[in-house]
Every structure is written in C-alpha cells, then in structure tokens.
Design a protein that fits this description.
The complex is a heterodimer of chains A (190) and B (171).
Chain A lengths: L3 H10 L5 E5 L2 H8 L6 E4 L6 H11 L5 E6 H5 L4 H8 L4 E7 L2 E2 L5 E2 L7 H8 L3 E5 L2 H13 L4 E6 L13 H18 L1
Parallel strand pairs in A: 1-2, 1-3, 3-4, 4-8, 7-8
Antiparallel strand pairs in A: 5-6
Helix pairs in contact in A: 1-2, 1-7, 3-5
Chain B lengths: L7 H10 L4 E4 L6 H8 L5 E4 L6 H10 L4 E6 H6 L1 H9 L6 E5 L12 H4 L1 H8 L2 E5 L7 H12 L3 E5 L11
Classes of the chains: A alpha/beta (190), B alpha/beta (171).
Chain lengths: 190, 171
C-alpha cells in the first residue's frame, strides 16, 4: 500500500505541463504538491465525473497530456466512462485510480465489492495499457516509462485509506472553485 | 424547407453555422436520423457516450480546452444527468446548448409518457431556459438558444418535439 502523499508526489514529478483533473481525498494532496494551479481542476461538485471531464479536455487539447486522479468509489459510479474513454482513443490520457476500498470522505464504509480488478476492466474496455502498483518504489521507477507510452492508460494505485472523521464541508467558496479553475484552465490552454 | 418536418441536414447546417466542434450524444428515437448526418459532417466530431450523465462533464472539458461542444440526449437521459447538470453545467456557469429528444411529446399535451410530462416542469425547476423545435420552420430558434447560452453563461435546452425525418424523405 502506498500513502496518498507519496503517490501524489511521484505522479507530480512526471507531470510536466500536464493538465490534472482530481477528485476526492487525493485532491488536497495534489493541491499541496502542484506548482501549476492554473492547470488543475478538482471535482468538488459532481462526484464520479473526473474521468469524463478529463476525457473532454484530452479530446479538446490533444497535444496536452491529461492526468486524471480518480477514486475507486468514484469510478464505480461512472464505470461506463471506461468504454467511452477507450472509444475515443486519447493517446494523451493517463487515468490513475486511487484504490482504498472504502468511501473515505463519508467515514470509511466499504465499497460494494472492494476487490475489483480495475486494470482488467480497463483493458477489456479498450485502454491501450494498464498497470497496478502497491509499492511506492515500483510506481516511482515505472511511471516515467508508462507516461512515455501513448494512452489511454489506467494506472491503479493501492493506497492506505484515510476515513474522514467529519463530513465534506460544502461552502460557497468550494462550490465556486471548480468553475473558476476551468476558466483559468481555458485561459492557460488558449 | 417543408413545414412540420425536421430534416437532419438543416439541423446540422445550423450547428456548423454556430461553429460547433463536438457533439456528445447517446442516440435516441428522436435523434437517430441526425446521428447519421452528424457522423458524415467533417467539421463536427461525434463522441458517443455509454450513459447520458457523461455528456455534460465531457462538454465541460471540451469547453475548457477551447472547443465549442453541444450535447444530444433524450429527456429520460436528461433526468439521469441531473447531478451533472447541477454541478457541472449550472454550477460552473457553462454556456452549453443541450439538444433533448422530447420522447412522448404531443402538440395537444395529452401524453401517457411521464418522460414527456415531467420534462418542462423539470427544466423550470432547474431554471433551464428552453426552445421547442417541431419542424424546419422552428429552426430559427436554434441560434436563439446559442445566443441565450452565451449571454447567460448557462445551459440552454433545445427540445426536439418530433422524430427527425429520414434522409430519403427529405425533398
């Protein structure tokens, strides 16, 4: 198992000028690590749609690498997006799935089935390649080569769950953030 | 133009005129003939989705990448897309034109299909403006929908209240 902090730090090292779409627990770690907030968007208001939003950016900006930091529970709510992504064959899309087996933000309840083989699902859906990691050192060693290969790729990362003790704080500011981020990104990509 | 009939080629011409770059769609009975015309139009890239709820976030991503997408789904699919409509269209002030197949629509309003009966109240509830198109004569409402979406920075619906004519019946 890998900590969120380590996983995000390793991914950020390979980021370059990639756009990043993030959701759920990994978001706060990504914001702490990212040095390019104008290329980041966190799904703060629309659970499960990271893969779909990322696909739209990847198709619309084919010369820009797009990194998606999805969660296992989130992906399960939008599982058909694997097929939709694969159908578009976006070579610039790298879909990370942080797998903790739980709904962390609601306190740690188990997923309907915590033992899902996401890489196999991605390959069966038509992704170009898929990988799984449960040790930080292996992720750090292999990720550069994975991101040199054309996508769409799914990179499954087993992480240590961090069940939240309090609910998600939805504020006017957090709800307004996603639109502001997308407008900043539109400007940056323009 | 022929009154009372909606021809796919006329709708696609409107989309081209508006500079649409992408159509995200899950085909339905009302739009099935438009699909064939769309995939033949080189300036518009068609993105089929597995479930309607994907269409709005994909459109939001395309918009952020500087593209000009529209979506085309059935009214039943719009209901399925409720959370995406809330969070990723209305919630982010996304100027998006949504073509919505009006399954069950009848001009006199008496329909047993709840997908039709709930559609307009649903749009009113969410504060989404809409224009209804029943035939080629109504196509001047399409540019109005684009204008409304841009001016309001909000999603706007174009309700397709008829099945598109088949291409062989066009003239």
């Amino acid at each position: 198992m890998i900590s969120y902090e380590d996983a995000v730090e390793i991914i950020n090292r390979e980021r370059g000028d990639a756009v990043c779409v993030t959701t759920m627990t990994q978001t706060k770690y990504w914001y702490a690590a990212s040095e390019k907030p104008e290329l980041d968007v966190g799904i703060s208001n629309g659970m499960s749609k990271a893969s779909s939003l990322g696909l739209g950016i990847a198709v619309g900006a084919p010369d820009r690498t797009v990194i998606i930091l999805d969660g296992d529970g989130s992906l399960l709510m939008n599982l058909g997006s694997l097929v939709t992504v694969a159908g578009q064959r976006p070579q610039n899309l790298y879909h990370f799935v942080f797998d903790n087996g739980i709904y962390a933000v609601t306190g740690g309840q188990p997923l309907p089935n915590p033992e899902v083989d996401y890489p196999a699902m991605a390959m069966a859906s038509g992704y170009a390649h898929a990988h799984t990691f449960s040790h930080a050192e292996e992720l750090a060693t292999e990720l550069p080569e994975i991101m040199r290969k054309p996508g769409p790729a799914l990179i499954h990362v087993s992480v240590v769950g961090e069940p939240a003790s309090e609910g998600v704080d939805q504020t006017w500011e957090s709800n307004a953030r996603m639109g502001a981020q997308l407008r900043a990104m539109k400007k940056a990509l323009g | 133009m022929i009154t009372g009939i909606l021809h796919p080629k006329n709708v696609v011409e409107q989309l081209v005129r508006q500079g649409v770059t992408h159509m995200i769609t899950l085909p339905d009975s009302e739009t099935r003939h438009m699909y064939d015309r769309l995939v033949a139009e080189p300036s518009i890239h068609v993105i089929p989705v597995s479930r309607e709820g994907e269409a709005i976030p994909i459109a939001a991503g395309l918009w952020a990448a500087g593209q000009h997408p529209v979506i085309s789904i059935q009214n039943a699919g719009l209901f399925e897309s409720g959370d995406a409509l809330r969070g990723l269209a209305i919630g982010i002030d996304l100027p998006l034109v949504m073509f919505v197949g009006y399954r069950g629509y009848t001009r006199h309003g008496d329909t047993p299909d709840s997908a039709a009966r709930f559609l307009e109240p649903y749009l009113h509830l969410w504060g989404v403006d809409y224009y209804t198109v029943e035939g080629d004569d109504d196509l001047d409402r399409v540019p109005l929908a684009f204008e409304r979406a841009e001016k309001s920075s909000q999603p706007v619906a174009v309700l397709i209240g008829t099945e598109y004519a088949t291409e062989y019946a066009k003239e």
